[in-house]
Amino acid sequence: MLTLLPLLACTDGDEPDRTTGDSAADSGIADTADTADTGALADLEPCGFTPMTDLDAAPDVVEVNLTASNFAWDPGTGIPLTGGMAFNEAVPGPVLEAKLGDRVRVHFVNDTDIDMSIHWHGLRVTPEMDGIQQMMGDPVSPGETFEYEYTIVDGGFYWFHTHMNTATTIEAGLYAPIVLHVPDEVAPDCDLPVVLDDVLLDEDTWQIAPPDTAMMKLMGRLGNVLMANGRSGRRVAWTKGQTTLLRLVNSSNARYWDLVLEGHTMTVVGTDGGFLAEPYAVDHLVMAPGERYMVVVEARGEAGESYRLMNRRVQLHEEDGDMIEVDPMGNGENPVMSFVYGVGEVVGAGWRQPAPDVPAWGAAVENLGHHWVLEEDMMGGTVTIDGAAWPDVPMVDVPMDVDATFEVENKSEMHHPFHIHGNRFQVVDVGGEAVAEGQGWKDTFDIPPRTTVRIVSALDNPGEWMYHCHILEHADGGMAGMMTVMEE
Ligand code: C2O
Ligand code: CU
Ligand code: CU
Predict the structure, then answer these.
(1) pLDDT digits (tens, 9 = 90+) for 2-34
(2) Any idea which ligand is nearest the CA of 290?
(3) Which of 39, 159, 429, 486 is the most buried (most CB within 10 A)?
(4) Cβ distance 477 to 220 under 8 Å?
């Protein structure tokens, strides 16, 4: 598994021939940057991130400019995507960085030619700022602007994305990370947000393949290029002894990722809604679309060594079900990015777990908020919640400030990542089995085929909130509804 870094560049013949359309699945396009470059370490990136420029000098105000535009970006193939879109001409968009209690102001400009609204995935903002009211009523049209403004009440790792025609616009590149610091956080040596995405390219033109085949609407769109922060083949510099906080988010339309980091242990220290009470070590990490995990890695390699973050295939359908699912990445493991050791060694900052903000519910509460039923009709080609498709799914009404259990029953033979806006939840049990590992806040959770998942919430953020499957083809196809958290 361990590969030695070639100190001089060489081409080992693995590189896909893009002119003849050699399949990405066979060769793993993510390999190319390892071999295609000429200057040994020239393409190494520092471990860290540059946030969006804060235009307001006040310490508790973060004010940024955010512009969405048509933008041709290179997913690592060397061929810019003419159908690409980006925030501030970067994919992912630049990191929105703030801290608990900050007031955030975003001057959003829609410089594309389609209607848009921005959703702050996982943040407990007000309904007017969540992007859904706009989506349903008054979107930000081409050439228009909108001021998003909210207070940060959660810490950890989140992301934002457009919330209209998501299957097309998120595939095109409109997504970005949100890093929210908490007061007792000790900065790690490296704080690295990594957005995991796949994109489906036509293998003749290496442009974004056309959307919306009937099959994709049901199965979800799986890509043939795996990207970390908008590009395959990234190589990040590490130094022995350093501590890295990887902030991982899955922005794929439909792909579940199953990550393995060669030669290193990953310790999960946080989930969707902040830090955990009890970190736990994993040898692989499964992530559904929309989910986040914060993971700490101690760098223990030696100078010149290179370790890859690998992705294993996750099948979305029951293995013994009726659907035959083909993954354009093939069935094996594929490289996502590499960590490359430079010379020397440092005494790292180590890791100290910030105080969690998670009540130890650990069990369902008696009050049943709602029982959702997810279904798929293969013949009719529809995905539904409670027997209907958006906008006809019946409204769910629940009182504010009452602890409630919700049940999500998946009657289909496919996994669905269920996402709820505006409030935060804990997963209690999956198919009747208690969740063993560190309880944390979640806003997106996998509902396995033919399984019921129970979640609890304190429902402390009133308003009308959308919930939906985060397989974007399903969300756009109607697997979405609204819930009202009612004030007295
Ligand atoms: Cu990440 Cu309603 O979305
Ligand atoms: Cu969301
Ligand atoms: Cu779904």
Answers:
(1) 333 222 223 333 333 333 333 333 333 434 334
(2) 1
(3) 159
(4) no
- Distance in angstroms (rounded) separating the CA atoms of residues 171 and 200: 8
Q: Give per-residue pLDDT as tens, 388-430.
A: 999 999 999 999 999 999 999 999 999 999 999 999 999 999 9
Q: What predicted TM-score, i.e. pTM, was given to this entire model? A: 0.91
Q: Identify the residues whose C-beta falls under 6 Å from ligand 1.
A: 119, 121, 161, 163, 290, 419, 421, 466, 468, 470
The CATH number fitting domain 190-345, selected from 3.40.50.300, 3.90.180.10, 2.60.40.420, 2.60.120.1440? 2.60.40.420
Residue 132 CA, closest ligand 1 atom number: 2
Q: Which residue has the CA at smallest separation from atom 1 of ligand 1?
A: 121
Determine the number of helices (DSSP H) and then strands (DSSP E) in the chain.
Answer: 6, 31
Ligand 1 centre distance from Cα of residue 126 (Å): 15
User: From the centroid of its chain, how far is CA 408?
Assistant: 21
- What is the distance between the alpha carbons of residues 170 and 247, in angstroms, rounded to a whole number? 19
Query: For residue 475, which atom of ligand 1 is closest to its CA?
Result: 2
- Residue range 368-486 in CATH 2.60.40.420: yes
